[in-house]
């Protein structure tokens, strides 16, 4: 054996003994699942450092605060060989998703620490070698940072509307005057960072002699009008929109940091009659006249619901709301800085910092899940590495690998287990080299690597916009086909003779056995002797065991509606975009398309709150409500995810969000013979509903499934109908909504029939749970999900004849009127 072979054998993991072997036996799967090198020396080093709690990265690396490039960096202090050493990284915080805000509100030291760690992440990183997108805009002329002294030295088009001479050496007001006289269409002028910008005569000149100019040096002039407000909202990149959009079409205005309160007359805002949202941050309010003008703005915004202001202004508005005076000034206003006025919940003293940390922390977090032999964690545990770990920048060709590691000192998962990250060189590193790691380690283009990089990097957006437009056009085109299919649909179910015979039934559901007591049904234990098979689990590949004379409570291929992602596919692919299904994307395959939709909504100031759902978990497990793009992308690390547009204005009763459980009864797919059970069940949230972003992590505000270990307010359907009539009867009748729900279910099964003709099987019948919410904007029912073998215990508790009704309809051919059903 050669010397090198002997060294390799000595450094292998064979023949480990003692504490090291016990450590490896318990932790080895975790380590090497993450790609830890199979080297004894490195394993020994890790084991020793863990036992000694030795954090020695500072001896080998230095953190640099690079203010010029606006990022932290880590530099090597000495040469290091590949796999030569391993380093422990402490975790500044570990948390489950819903635990972050409470932790930041309670721990000011932690908040300050995290604020410092994310201070450069308000801006995204530039991608090396990728040119920025072209920012040259029609009718907007730029001559920035060219050391210009005389603006007349440049040939500026006479129809120029926006002129930027930022960062030059212009100081002669007469030269400026000469240039402005040539530009009758000019409305926006930037002379920022020029000597003349400090000359008070410049503003007097512009406001007195050139009233066409509405914005000077990024601030409104006294001549600012509708154009100026549209320009600061949509920007130079959308100059065509600024020129063409009518004020009544505008729902959002951005007048932040523009000295809007220096205008004496604020009636300009009445020109925007449909304004719903406005940003008026970075606006000084020092004098009583400023306060009066601010409230004059609000009075002229008759439909304003959302406003963003500076913290001191919010506190003033908060006090007025407590006194009941704010409603007198602006009765339509609902949210200030995303805070729901009706909650009267004073903003936390550090709210702006908390919000900034919660927005940007997703660029530096990592994630792991706990698993034991008998249980798998339903949601991920997130962590933030300490200052050293969080300062390591990204590279596709990293020289360091960094992984999470759960150390169990007793070699078992107990209360002494503690999480770290560990890192080691995967390449030779020279002194003064910058240290990098791959933020998307192990993620390839098959897992949409490039799209996920938008979390950290300023990616060109055209690709995402094109993907969104392509998908949206496809859905709209299929909708045209679907509308025709629905219009022409004329299936007539077979007329079946009522039966009065004995059926033998086998079932594994006590709720069925205990509640079907009529003489026509006898329960047996032998599947071969049964006429009806009613099971709680899918048969899958064992349908062949069912004879042609038996009936079974499931259809082949029914996963096309009972799996969340397949439900969306079934509808979109067969009847296109429908108004009863919220926009949905499978993030495992449609991340780029979703990002395009998100950016489209952001650019157009549309509501951008989404709900992220795992496709295969019930009871709202691992579901998150957020409007943060990087949060959404990082949540994909906890498992497969669907994302669906959140219903931001759901129907509420007594102020609480609610959904409805219906039971669908499918007797035949072709010809279609489908029913709804007449009674429905109402589920409400425990807390008053609000879209205040501070409640997004509060389960009892946004979710209604409380059956498991949570208190549940029971509202029966007849009680609900009385309350609904009192609260909404002057707007719409429940019968109208009920008919929309019936149409929705029928359209769903028309889509199933078109897309899955092989699902029809004469041996099969089924019931499905249907969860529905109502969008308050237009009282449109929205289908949330369809479930196989729904939990019917509550149905039987309040309607003891429930299963007897269903069995009579399905197997005795009794009429829907006799069995409390509606045929669709």
TrEMBL record:
Note the InterPro entries from the entry: Leu-rich_rpt, LRR_dom_sf, SET_TTL12, TTL/TTLL_fam, TTLL12
Look up the domain of life of the source.
Eukaryota
Q: Which GO terms describe its cellular component?
A: cytoplasm
Domain Tubulin--tyrosine ligase-like protein 12 SET-like residues, every copy: 350-457
User: What SUPFAM superfamilies does the record tag this protein with?
Assistant: Glutathione synthetase ATP-binding domain-like (SSF56059), RNI-like (SSF52047)
Record's Pfam families? Answer: SET_TTL (PF25556), TTL (PF03133)
Which PANTHER family would you find in this protein's record?
Answer: TUBULIN--TYROSINE LIGASE-LIKE PROTEIN 12
Q: What is this protein called?
A: Tubulin--tyrosine ligase-like protein 12 SET-like domain-containing protein
Q: Which organism is it from?
A: Pseudocohnilembus persalinus (Ciliate)
Q: Which taxonomic lineage does the organism of this UniProt entry have?
A: Eukaryota, Sar, Alveolata, Ciliophora, Intramacronucleata
